[in-house]
Amino acid sequence: MIIDIPEDKDAIEYVWGEMVPGIGVAASNFSLSVYAHTTLGLREFEAARLRIAQLNGCAFCLDWRTERDGQKVEEGFDDAVAQWRTTDAFDDRTRLAAEYAERYALDHHGLDQEFWSRMTAHYSQAEIVELSMSIGSWWAFGRLNHVLGLDTVCVLPSGPSPAGKRR
User: Fold this and answer.
1) What is the CATH number of the domain that holds 30?
2) Mean pLDDT of 73-87
């Protein structure tokens, strides 16, 4: 980690809340809102989130699994996300979520009419905006955590860092 964290402080809370409170708190609220207010199904949400995590290389994000009403995606879902083009584990919406996340991150200028025709056939305009905001949050904040080295010391209230332990 490249940021000096006082010994009595949690790294994430310190960086995201105390170091630059005018920005960090707002960023934290945006990040948390993506989880608290999503209307997307768990599989498409996780396909997009995990694809961004794979591209960012954020250790915490790679190990994290979103839980809703006691449900998480199945074991091996992350492998299917990495193979989104060929996996038979995904329906059209889930595959498109992974594709959109990858293209958003790596080829946003290449999002052509053919792609948008496929997206609008499976997602409403509101869902596309929501997915875009979610992907933007994961891309920015997962990248920030990885670049600053926070992803290996990240601890959420539910327990220790998943960087070394699967939740």
Assistant:
1) 1.20.1290.10
2) 95
